[in-house]
Structures are given as C-alpha cells and as structure tokens.
C-alpha cells in the first residue's frame, strides 16, 4: 500500500511539474525573452551618433511615409515609383536594391503606367522584390501547377539540400502579373509568421509577436530564399549554399547560420537592434529621393546626395499610418509598432554580418532546470527555514544574473521557466519537509508517550515554543502504589521474570489511571505515582483517585489468579492517596526538565502508601481526601497516627469499599 501511495504521489508531482513547465514556457517565457531582447541584449554595432542608428550603416531605408503621401496623394500611379528606381539606377550605385512590396495585380485603368514601371525594373540586375507564399491551396490547381513550374524554373535556388523531408506549411503562391514576372530577376519571400523562437506551430496562436525569420522557404520540393537571403546571395555574388536541418551553410564564406527546422518551417530568431525614432537603420523619406531625382534631371543640386548609397543595400518599403493601406507595421519584442521594412532590413543585417543570436540547446536548459531544482531541494532538506530560504533566493538571483549575462552577449537561454520551476520545487520541498517532520514528530510523540503521560505530552506540544522552568500552585490528589515485598521477591527471580511481571502489572494499571482522568507522573521501580486534577482539570479529582485506587486493587486480585496458575509469585500492592495544594510545573534545569508535582501533599501520599505495611492494609487515604469522598466509601478510621515529618498526630482512613 505504501508503495502504491508513493507511486501515485510521484506521478501527481511529476504531472504538476510538467503542467507548470508547459504553461510557463508557452505563456510566460516568450514575454521574458522579449524583455531581455529589448532591455538587456546589446548591439554588435556601435551607436552612430551622426546617423543616429543602432544597426549597421551598410543598409539604408527608403520609406514611403506620411511626408511622401502628403505630397503625392495615395494611391498613385505605379509609374511614379519610377522616380525612386531611376534615381538608384542612373545616379546612385547601391550594391543591392530591395523592394519590400507585393505586386499581385495590374492597374487596369493605368496599364501603360504599370508597363512603364515594369520596364524600369527590367533594367536592374541587382534588384530583389518580394513574393508571398500562401498557406491556402490554389483555387485553380491546374493554373497553379503551371505557375509553380515557371516560378521554380526562374527563382528556385540551387542549394544542396540535406534534409530527409522538407517542412510543409505553404500550399500555393500569390502570383505575379505576367509583365511584372518577366521584368524581375530576383525575388524573396516576405512571409512572416508570429510565434516563439521554438518554432512550434502551436505557439503561433499564443501571441502576435514576430520574433523569427524564415531565410529558407520550402515549397513543392524546391528551396526559395527569403527577401533577406536573396539580398545576401546577390550581395555576396551567389556563394555556394548547403541546407540541413540545423544549419544554412556557406562553405565559401566560412560561416553558417543555425536554424531550427520543424515539421512546418525552418526559422532563425532575429537579432533586433534598438530603435531611434522607430527605426534601427538610416531612414530617408521616399519623397526626398523623388525630389532629388527631379532636381538631378533638371540640373539642380539633389536633396539627397546619391553618393551616400554607394555600395550600400537600399531597402524600399512603406510605413504610413493606418487608413492608407501602406501600414506594414508589426509587433516585435522591441516595439508594438515596428515598421516591416525595418524588420526586413534587420534580417538582412543579421545575415550579411553573421550577427545572430546563439540559442542554447534544449538539453542545456533542461540540465539547468534539473540542477537548480535539485539544489533547491537539497537546501531545504538540509538547512533551517531562514538559511534554506536565503540559499534558494540567492540561487534564483544568481540564475537571473546568469541569464542576463547570456542575453547581454547574445546567448539565449530560458529566463523565467527555470525560476518558476525552482519556486515550484521550493513549495514542494517545504511541503515534503513539513510532512516528514510531522511524521517524525508523531514518531517522537508516540515514542515519548511511552515515557510520559499522553496528557503531559499534549501539554508540551501545545506549549512547544514556550517551554521553560516554572509552574503554578494547584489543588490535586496524589496516588502512590507499591508492590509489597517486591525487592526480596525479585531476588529469587530472573531479570526476565521480573521484567515480565512488572510490565504486565503496569500495562494493566495504566488504562485504569487514565480512565479516571489521572496521569502517571512516573514509575519508581515497582511503584507508581499518579496525579489527579492536573494537567487534566477535574473538580472530582479526589473521588476519581479513590475509585481508581479501588479498581487497581480489584485488577490485582484478577492478576493474582493468573500469576498463580502460571507458577509466578502472588504479589500484593499498597495504595496511599492524599489531597492538597502542590506546586505543579516544569522542574529541573534549562537543559533537562520534568513535568511533576512537589510539596508536602506528595510526601504525605508517599508516607500513607508505606503505612499499609504497618497497619496490614491495602489502601490508605488522608483526612483531606476523606472529606471529599466520605459519601462514596466504607472506611475504617485509624486515629492519632504519628506521621514521620509531621509535628502532630493525624487521622488516616483505610478504604474497604467504594460504593
């Protein structure tokens, strides 16, 4: 039964730990991660005071912002975009131009405008535009199959794929218009799915915070780059690329990107940079580029010098307040309103400079949790409350410092989940310790109850925190009983026989004393000292003491028959009872004390017991006791007895019968 209870308890505890871990990891850990990324993570790049940026200066944003749409009312004809792109084609010399936008239809009212724009894009060999994979399947599967083949032939990347089975989440593409498709040479996915850095698809529904980037897109058995990866490949002249479950490798460049591949996708956590007025990279309003183009065309000085874009990566995107259709802002760990164009720039910055977060393996997180929980349990089991609490709190603080240092240097470990598990272990450990200590106390109580009265034990337990020497004056009745001639009798018996008779005798006497609200104060050899009236409050303590003594005598008569039949000696007992005031309480030293009664009343009860030998009686009581019980006893008065230690003679009474 104990094994079953232990097994069930262990299973319940394990389930609680699993539940707490699951809830904390999925609901709380992402928030802790976001806090660390925003407030603790440091930038690889120095803050550029002149440009007021935190990301690298190799990437420049050109943003269609409020300033732009104030001058050029949105929506505008697409050929207006030609000013932007012609500026970079004719005057600036960027390494790569990135267009963070999706074009999925033709402006049927301005077809010529679209054609002019597409013809401008056709001039670029270093232009990367965005495409959008779709989770929903094609509505027209035949049309989709044809488009997939064309798209694959032109844009799929030739990378060595070491995956046994590719992730599967996308079922179709948002198609380009034919003229647009034919005008572009490079594209990359702009898909972003919110969720935690573990890549678990179930976490997508838990929050709407964007933390990851899919550098590699798997679709129909082919590999496609993200907008950032496509930019990188163009920027680095299409280096050799190898894709495996855990890495994207570039052997020619000598580095690799660690990714997490799940059933659905391969993700890499984005290493965000701090924002300056909403952006982590240099931002130029699109209207300034368009005005600069007009100025250059007219022989005037441009607002923006084209030289600043030389050999840079230019990312063109939109960030206009809601209502215009140009709001592409996302909720990220560092901002609830982070421009999508800056997120794309950050993903490009990460891969261009090989500047990624380093995620510790899951086994390291589990090891730290198990180690911390084990230490927490050991602290609580070995030390007292104050010391164990101090050590456990110190352990938690040290772990938080460790986690902060890791994030400071770009190493990601679980932050809050281990702390919560330590705290849960702390609760379980204290509970377990409390249960074990209670069991231990019960064992001690049970063991000590064999050495002292249960009532004294209860009194000690009730006042466990206030034990000390001292007591009070009380009116009680004291009973002494002794076996007649036991010393000489025991000389003819073995130690085992003596022990057997005494144990049997005391075993029969103890419940009788307890029955009448008495407590056995002590065993003195073959004698018993019992107290009535304290610590059990009893107004009739004198009557109960006499009734107890009389029943003890009757029980001894029964035992005599049994002992004679067993060949054991026939023993007799004598009982002395006295009522009076005593000092009752803890007597002894500060290190060893005893709950007892002292005073003349006790001494007289002892004397009365010994006088049974003189008067050949079995139970003698004092006059003070007789005054309390005269209505229930038949007695013989023994007058003018000279008691040792008393200055005058006194009457004592032999109890013949209790009515």
- The whole-number mean of residue pLDDT values reads 88
The tally of domains stands at: 3
The largest pleated sheet is described as: 8 strands, mixed
* Beta-strand residue fraction: 15-25%
Kindly name the structural category: alpha/beta
Distance between the termini: 51 Å
In total, how many beta strands? 29
Q: Measured on Cα atoms, how large is the radius of gyration?
A: 47 Å
Q: What overall form do the CA principal axes indicate?
A: rod-shaped
Q: Residue share in helices?
A: 40-55%
Folded structure, characterized:
By secondary structure, the protein is of the alpha/beta class. The chain has 3 domains: 2-16 and 362-447, no CATH class; 56-356, no CATH class; 454-658, Nucleotide cyclase, GGDEF domain (Alpha-Beta Plaits, 2-Layer Sandwich), CATH 3.30.70. The chain is 43% helix and 22% strand. The chain contains 18 helices and 29 strands. The strands form 8 sheets. Strands 22, 23, 24, 25, 26, 27, 28 and 29 form an 8-stranded mixed β-sheet that branches. A 6-stranded parallel β-sheet has the order 7-3-2-17-1-16. Strands 5-11-12-13 form a 4-stranded mixed β-sheet, with no helix packed on it. A hairpin with a 4-residue loop joins strand 25 (573-588) and strand 26. Helix 1 packs antiparallel against helix 12 (416-448), helix 3 crosses helix 8 (286-297) and helix 11 runs antiparallel to helix 12. The radius of gyration is 47 Å and the shape is rod-shaped.
């Amino acid at each position: 039964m104990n094994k079953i209870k232990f097994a069930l308890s262990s299973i319940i505890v394990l389930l609680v730990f699993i539940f707490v871990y699951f809830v904390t990891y999925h609901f709380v850990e992402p928030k802790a991660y976001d806090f660390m990324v925003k407030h603790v993570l440091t930038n690889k790049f120095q803050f550029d005071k002149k440009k007021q940026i935190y990301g690298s200066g190799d990437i420049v944003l050109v943003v269609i912002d409020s300033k732009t749409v104030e001058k050029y009312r949105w929506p505008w004809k697409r050929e207006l975009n030609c000013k932007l792109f012609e500026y970079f084609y004719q005057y600036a010399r960027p390494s790569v131009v990135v267009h963070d936008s999706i074009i999925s239809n033709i402006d049927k009212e301005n077809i010529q405008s679209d054609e002019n724009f597409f013809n401008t894009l056709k001039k670029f060999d270093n232009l990367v535009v965005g495409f959008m994979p779709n989770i929903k399947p094609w509505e027209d599967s035949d049309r989709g199959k044809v488009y997939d083949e064309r798209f694959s032939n032109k844009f799929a990347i030739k990378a060595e794929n070491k995956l046994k089975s590719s992730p599967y989440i996308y079922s179709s593409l948002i198609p380009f218009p034919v003229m647009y498709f034919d005008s572009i040479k490079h594209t990359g996915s702009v898909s972003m799915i919110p969720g935690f850095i573990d890549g678990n698809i179930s976490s997508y529904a838990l929050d709407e915070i964007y933390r990851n980037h899919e550098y590699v897109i798997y679709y129909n058995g082919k590999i496609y780059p993200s907008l950032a990866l496509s930019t990188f490949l163009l920027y680095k002249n299409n280096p050799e690329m190898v894709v495996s479950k855990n890495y994207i490798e570039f052997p020619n460049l000598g580095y690799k990107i660690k990714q997490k591949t799940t059933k659905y996708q391969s993700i890499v956590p984005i290493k965000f940079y701090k924002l300056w007025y909403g952006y982590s990279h240099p931002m130029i309003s699109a209207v300034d580029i368009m005005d600069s183009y007009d100025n250059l065309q007219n022989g005037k000085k441009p607002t923006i010098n084209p030289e600043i874009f030389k050999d840079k990566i230019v990312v063109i995107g939109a960030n206009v307040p809601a209502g215009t259709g140009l709001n592409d802002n996302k909720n990220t760990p560092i901002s609830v309103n982070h421009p999508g164009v800056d997120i794309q720039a950050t993903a490009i910055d990460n891969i261009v400079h090989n500047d990624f977060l380093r995620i510790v393996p899951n086994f390291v997180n589990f090891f730290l949790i198990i180690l911390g929980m084990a230490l927490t349990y050991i602290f609580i089991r070995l030390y007292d409350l104050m010391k164990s609490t101090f050590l456990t709190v110190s352990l938690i603080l040290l772990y938080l410092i460790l986690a902060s240092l890791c994030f400071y240097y770009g190493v990601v470990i679980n932050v809050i989940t281990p702390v919560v598990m330590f705290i849960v272990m702390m609760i379980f450990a204290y509970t377990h310790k409390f249960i074990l200590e209670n069991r231990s106390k019960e064992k001690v109580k049970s063991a000590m109850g064999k050495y002292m009265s249960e009532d004294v034990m209860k009194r000690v337990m009730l006042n466990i925190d206030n034990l000390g020497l001292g007591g009070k004056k009380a009116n009680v009745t004291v009973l002494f009983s002794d076996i007649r001639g036991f010393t000489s009798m025991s000389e003819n018996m073995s130690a085992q026989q003596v022990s057997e008779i005494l144990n049997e005798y005391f075993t029969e006497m103890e419940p009788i004393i307890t029955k009448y609200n008495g407590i056995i104060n002590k065993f003195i050899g073959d004698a018993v000292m019992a107290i009535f009236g304290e610590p059990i409050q009893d107004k009739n303590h004198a009557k109960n003491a006499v009734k107890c003594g009389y029943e003890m005598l009757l029980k001894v008569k029964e035992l005599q028959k049994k002992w004679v039949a067993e060949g054991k000696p026939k023993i007799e007992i004598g009982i002395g009872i006295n009522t009076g005031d005593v000092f009752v309480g803890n007597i002894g030293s500060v290190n060893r004390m005893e709950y007892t009664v002292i005073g003349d009343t006790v001494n007289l009860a002892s004397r009365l017991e010994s006088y049974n030998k003189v008067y050949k009686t079995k139970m003698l009581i004092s006059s003070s006791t007789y005054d309390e019980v005269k209505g229930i006893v038949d007695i013989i008065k023994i007058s003018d007895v000279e008691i040792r230690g008393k200055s005058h003679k006194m009457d004592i009474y032999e109890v013949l019968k209790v009515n």
